[in-house]
Amino acid sequence: MVLQTETEQKIIVSAEKLFYQNGKAGTSMQDIADDAGINRTLLNYYFRSKDQLFEAVFRKAMGRFVPNLVAMLHSDISFEEYIPAMVETVIDTMIENPQIPIFVLQELSSNRKRMPQIIKEMGIDPAIALKKMEEEGVSKVTGGMDPRQIILNLLSLSVFPFAAKPVALDILYNGDNEAYLEAMKERKKIIPQLMKQLMSQNRSR
Amino acid sequence: MVLQTETEQKIIVSAEKLFYQNGKAGTSMQDIADDAGINRTLLNYYFRSKDQLFEAVFRKAMGRFVPNLVAMLHSDISFEEYIPAMVETVIDTMIENPQIPIFVLQELSSNRKRMPQIIKEMGIDPAIALKKMEEEGVSKVTGGMDPRQIILNLLSLSVFPFAAKPVALDILYNGDNEAYLEAMKERKKIIPQLMKQLMSQNRSR
DNA sequence: ATTTAGTTTAACGACTTTGTTAAACAACTT
DNA sequence: AAGTTGTTTAACAAAGTCGTTAAACTAAAT
């Protein structure tokens, strides 16, 4: 957004790391200062309060993937075409920040004033999204399946394996992070395939 | 587990509500006492400490759906047969407690000692699970797709829409909780269909 | 009528957290 | 040389949190 000094960046990096990991209430300003290797007073110097620092971190996290969602919902090009590139982007983002989904969803779930606020700021219009879908014939493509279910399926397949990383890693991949990562990359191919199958299969019935 | 007095139950109910909503650090003992309509001292009377109360809540939450997962992974009957009943159970559980997924995943993600501990206690053996799958011919059924990807798909489709409830509700269902609930119930049919398609489609290629 | 278990009230100590302030220091600019 | 900016140190008040304790109260059980 704005130019950032080196220190400001160190603060954000540490704040992200700790807020992602332990949440807002679970992270103290001292924790962040220590992790950033600076004095606690500096935190209040750059970000007036904990609230404001958290707000900065939260908005940055939202900014990493909400645009993808919005673009897909509001775009002109067809839903079907959109999927592969979108899945690739989302998964690449998540691989670098697997904790973002839980962090964001937890915050949205505990602070219910957040969603309406975001919808406004981001200019999301659910009505337009659904209308465009049907105009594009997506609902025909999906063989009558509610387009919202399609979206839920797509997001579920793309995001959940990261939200559930600790479980998946330890139970399915035996703690082998490399194997887990490989599997996540593989999903960039698997998911578009599934979505395509899913839609054409329905269409031909 | 054990007999519970009325008060003990009131405490657990309030603790669940608040821990689910705001996490461990975001919930004070006073908050819980107030919500339960009792005195804070009573909390320490029944559960020695905040840690122990949280532990009770967390274990109860895990107990709601881990058995489903374990049963599926270790069961004798075929994976394909297992899906419909399992999806039904999981979704019914989630409808009543949509916040559990985030709560549990957040805790597992911020407390990394938890997973190994749980794997031990619950008697989960990832090796056995995968072996059984292949013995049952699941890997043939899935046309060579890694059985772990199948499991990820199944869990993603079943659980994520609840973890993302605030987003889905406000963006896709315009805040209409009834509509959202209906959609979730619909998924009890949709998901098994998808999984079946997904597996047979792959098999026939 | 007395005991007992559950509960409340009040209070305490020890500790943490947040935000603020004042003073001093370092380094770089002008 | 003086000024500016970023930074540290030290200290503080206000508020909150947790666990504990002692004393008193209620109501049901013996």
Describe the structure.
The structure is a homodimer of 205-residue chains. Chain A is an all-alpha fold. Chain A folds into 2 domains: 1-48, Homeodomain-like (Arc Repressor Mutant, subunit A), CATH 1.10.10.60; 65-203, Tetracycline Repressor, domain 2 (Orthogonal Bundle), CATH 1.10.357. Helices cover 79% and strands 0% of the residues of chain A. The longest helix of chain A is centred in the last third of the chain and has 27 residues, at 177-203. At the A-B interface, helix 6, helix 7, helix 8, helix 10 and helix 11 of A face helix 6, helix 7, helix 8, helix 10 and helix 11 of B. The first copy, chain A, binds a DNA duplex (30 and 30 nucleotides) through residues 5, 7, 28-30, 38-42, 44-45, 48-50.
